[in-house]
């Protein structure tokens, strides 16, 4: 991560003395873009309201290593595109809405803000502000490398409404007072560090709370889909899943704490189900059991065979020898309630001409392994068990 050389419109000198203030106004769209770049980062201004006067204003104050700014302008969207985010300006920012309405997007999430609510976002990745009505916003900007919060943790809380609980409301009021009435006779560097510490404390406290909300169930569903879509990736593990969902490994485990399966157990179950389907697929008859095991993410045949027998009560070779087709499975049932034990009886052979559909396995499609999510409908066995005739 590149260390910022400025914060807001000021050189980053880490002043210990009094604050510095810069105020700028714009009445034209081009000037407004330049002003935003100067006080914050480069942004594309999209769909601005040009029907009335485009009166826009920013007042920024430097307090040690944090810039606190008041911003007001007509309705618009301010977008940090992927191209713009590569310019090296890496900041952690908090935006607190004081009037109007806003929606903030980053890292696949969006937060709806009303006055008094605030949001955290980072400038080294794309984000967008969609601002409605005549709005007013307070923005606090720290160089990212000066804030003691891990990248995984900060990614997990971007674009989430903050200030909804008691601690968040307290921190929000403190940030608002600092931005609206910057103190004059303080050690700016110490104040900047204290403000950052309050923010990280608030985020640390919320780490224990958010996995128990509806967001945790939504994340578990997303993780299950992600595993199913990357089931043949040998690098698929808890760490890679956490990175892909912008959450710490600890946070991911906490999210699954109340579920029937852990993350590791879910990966194993989905891999075994995918391997079982491939063992029964005539298109894979040219592959050995070892080939299929490796393709489904298992390091060696003994490990795969042991796990397969534990899950299904027979060896992969035995199952492949007697299987006549893939069970009809439904993808993405209810997530992670208790799973019924596997049937001790072998499934019926598929009748010729039954037209049982097979799911494609080409890159970009969702493998049928996802069907093992507990709660998905299972085809039940009817009648007496079918026994293969002796040769």
TrEMBL record:
Q: Name one GO molecular function term.
A: DNA-binding transcription factor activity
What is the annotated signal peptide range for this record? none
Is DNA-binding one of the keywords?
Answer: yes
The record, for InterPro entries, names: AraC-bd_2, AraC_XylS_family_regulators, Homeodomain-like_sf, HTH_AraC, HTH_AraC-typ_CS, Tscrpt_reg_AraC-type_HTH
Comp. bias (Basic residues): 378-391
Extract the Pfam families matched here. Answer: AraC_binding_2, HTH_18
Residue span, HTH araC/xylS-type domain = 221-322
Please give the organism.
Pseudonocardia thermophila
User: Is Transcription regulation there in the keyword field?
Assistant: yes
**Keyword terms of this UniProt record:** DNA-binding, Transcription, Transcription regulation
Q: Where is this region: Disordered?
A: 333-391
* The protein's name: Transcriptional regulator, AraC family
């Amino acid at each position: 991560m590149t260390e910022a050389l400025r914060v807001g419109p000021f050189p980053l000198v880490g002043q210990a003395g009094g604050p510095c203030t810069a105020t700028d106004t714009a009445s034209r769209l081009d000037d407004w873009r330049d002003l935003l770049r100067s006080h914050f980062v480069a942004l594309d201004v999209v769909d601005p309201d040009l029907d009335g006067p485009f009166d826009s204003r920013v007042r920024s104050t430097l307090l040690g290593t944090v810039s606190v700014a008041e911003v007001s302008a007509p309705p618009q969207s301010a977008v940090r595109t992927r191209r713009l985010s590569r310019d090296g300006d890496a900041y952690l920012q908090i935006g607190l809405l004081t009037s109007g309405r806003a929606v903030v997007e980053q890292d696949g999430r969006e937060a709806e803000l009303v006055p008094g609510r605030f949001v955290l976002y980072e400038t080294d990745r794309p984000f967008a502000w969609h601002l409605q009505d005549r709005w007013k916003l307070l923005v606090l900007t720290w160089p990212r490398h000066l804030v003691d919060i891990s990248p995984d943790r900060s990614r997990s809380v971007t674009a989430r409404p903050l200030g909804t609980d008691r601690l968040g409301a307290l921190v929000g009021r403190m940030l608002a007072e600092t931005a609206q009435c910057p103190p004059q006779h303080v050690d700016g560097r110490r104040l900047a560090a204290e403000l950052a510490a309050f923010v990280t404390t608030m985020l640390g406290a919320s780490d224990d709370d958010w996995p128990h909300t509806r967001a945790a169930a939504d994340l578990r569903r997303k993780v299950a889909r992600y595993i199913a879509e990357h089931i043949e990736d040998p690098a698929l593990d808890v760490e890679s899943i956490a990175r892909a969902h912008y959450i710490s490994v600890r946070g991911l485990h906490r999210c699954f704490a109340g579920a029937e399966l852990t993350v590791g157990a879910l990966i194993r179950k989905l891999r075994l189900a995918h391997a079982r389907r491939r063992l029964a697929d005539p298109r894979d008859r040219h592959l050995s059991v070892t080939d299929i095991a490796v393709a489904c993410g298992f390091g060696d045949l003994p490990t795969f065979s042991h796990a397969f027998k534990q899950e299904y009560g027979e060896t992969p070779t035995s199952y492949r020898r007697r299987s006549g087709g893939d069970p009809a499975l439904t993808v993405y049932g209810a997530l992670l309630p208790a799973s019924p034990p596997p049937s001790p009886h072998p499934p019926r052979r598929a009748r010729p001409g039954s037209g049982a559909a097979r799911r494609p396995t080409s890159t970009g499609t969702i493998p049928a392994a996802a069907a093992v999510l507990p709660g998905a409908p299972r085809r039940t066995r009817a009648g007496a068990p079918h026994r293969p005739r002796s040769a």
